[in-house]
């Protein structure tokens, strides 16, 4: 706002407070420019910050693009929040969860009053799958301190994040299946352009290229449709993206007399979004969600100046990727019909359902 008005931040503060120190004079023209900038940006003065005379509130915000609290035991954000809370205790700051924006079509937005509300906190963590790129760019342009929990690319690498290394973990999962003799390995997941999906697809494609195998991307429908597609393709192993419920898919496969893992090995590419806890120990990998939340809050604290940076130069690492944990599980085994699958690979052409994500 100060840049928009062409004045110093101190001048903005004087206009907002209505008080000027002895010897300081602000012309009516300057005052008008500041007030015009306030109207344009929708700025709302932060009374707490004003009382602290420019210091920090010791409050860090948390904003999630989706509903945060679980229903029916389906808790995906819980570990993130646990890590964030633990880090806040260590640093000595309070947390403020922004929940006033309604969830519309699965997503919250920061527009309208959201920008002003963020000003209550010194900085904010952002979580979720359905972020608005324009909103993130606005935060960058206004130099508001924030950290995204999850890898996000941005022009010039300006956007700070702490994410999970989906690409490396997915590559390892696919290569594990290859090492056991699987030759028809499919990726089952939505074809979207969000960063986690792109990273998982990239890791899968890298492993298939290394192993000299064809990629087989399957966009899931309902569980019955997905199971039928897997059967048509003759897959011996499937990598499931988090939006696919493995228990529902397993039931649909059993209706086609396809057993897991005897006929189809299954690996989960992270924790499913909507899975109820069950007895099956699924193979694949899990995300370091609690660690991601804690590291993200530490990074945000460094950006707002309430905590020293980790390195000696005092410059925090704005782009942090954490390793996922491989899970052996019980749903990855060598294919029972390895010879049949190998022959199918040598003789088959690419079916219409396959889409190479080159």
UniProtKB/TrEMBL annotation:
<dbReference type="InterPro" id="IPR046335">
    <property type="entry name" value="LacI/GalR-like_sensor"/>
</dbReference>
<dbReference type="GO" id="GO:0003677">
    <property type="term" value="F:DNA binding"/>
</dbReference>
<keyword id="KW-0678">Repressor</keyword>
<feature type="compositionally biased region" description="Polar residues">
    <location>
        <begin position="346"/>
        <end position="358"/>
    </location>
</feature>
<dbReference type="InterPro" id="IPR028082">
    <property type="entry name" value="Peripla_BP_I"/>
</dbReference>
<dbReference type="Pfam" id="PF13377">
    <property type="entry name" value="Peripla_BP_3"/>
</dbReference>
<keyword id="KW-0805">Transcription regulation</keyword>
<keyword id="KW-0238">DNA-binding</keyword>
<feature type="region of interest" description="Disordered">
    <location>
        <begin position="326"/>
        <end position="358"/>
    </location>
</feature>
<feature type="domain" description="HTH lacI-type">
    <location>
        <begin position="1"/>
        <end position="54"/>
    </location>
</feature>
<protein>
    <submittedName>
        <fullName>LacI family DNA-binding transcriptional regulator</fullName>
    </submittedName>
</protein>
<keyword id="KW-0804">Transcription</keyword>
<dbReference type="InterPro" id="IPR000843">
    <property type="entry name" value="HTH_LacI"/>
</dbReference>
<dbReference type="InterPro" id="IPR010982">
    <property type="entry name" value="Lambda_DNA-bd_dom_sf"/>
</dbReference>
<dbReference type="Pfam" id="PF00356">
    <property type="entry name" value="LacI"/>
</dbReference>
């Amino acid at each position: 706002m100060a840049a928009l008005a062409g004045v110093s931040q101190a001048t903005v503060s004087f206009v907002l407070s209505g008080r000027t120190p002895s010897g300081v004079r602000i012309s009516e023209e300057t005052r008008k420019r500041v007030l015009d900038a306030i109207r344009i940006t929708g700025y709302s003065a932060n009374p707490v910050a004003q009382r602290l005379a420019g210091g920090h509130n010791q409050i860090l915000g948390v904003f999630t693009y989706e509903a945060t609290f679980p229903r029916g035991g389906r808790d995906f954000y819980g570990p993130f929040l646990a890590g964030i809370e633990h880090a806040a205790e260590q640093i000595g700051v309070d947390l403020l969860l922004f929940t006033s924006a309604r969830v519309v079509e699965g997503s919250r937005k920061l527009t309208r009053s959201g920008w002003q509300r963020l000003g209550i906190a010194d900085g904010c963590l952002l979580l979720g799958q359905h972020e608005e790129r324009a909103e993130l760019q606005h935060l960058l342009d206004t130099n508001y301190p924030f950290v995204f929990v999850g890898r996000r690319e941005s022009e010039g690498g300006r956007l700070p994040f702490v994410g999970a290394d989906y690409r490396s973990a997915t590559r390892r999962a696919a290569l594990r299946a290859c090492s056991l003799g699987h030759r028809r390995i499919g990726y089952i997941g939505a074809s979207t352009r969000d960063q986690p999906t792109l990273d998982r697809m990239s890791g899968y494609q890298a492993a298939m290229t290394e192993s000299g195998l064809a990629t087989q991307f399957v966009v899931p429908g309902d569980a019955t449709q997905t199971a039928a597609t897997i059967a048509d393709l003759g897959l011996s192993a499937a990598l499931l993206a988090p939006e696919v419920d493995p228990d529902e898919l397993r039931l649909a496969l059993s209706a086609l007399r396809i057993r897991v893992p005897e006929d189809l090995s299954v690996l989960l590419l992270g924790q499913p979004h909507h899975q109820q806890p069950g007895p099956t120990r699924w193979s694949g990998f899990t995300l370091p969600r609690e660690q991601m939340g804690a590291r993200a809050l530490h990074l945000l604290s460094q950006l707002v100046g309430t905590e020293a940076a980790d390195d000696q130069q005092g410059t925090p690492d704005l782009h942090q990727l954490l390793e996922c944990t491989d899970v052996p599980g019980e749903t990855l085994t060598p294919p029972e019909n390895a010879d049949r699958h190998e022959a199918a690979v040598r003789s088959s052409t690419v079916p219409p359902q396959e889409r190479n994500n080159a």
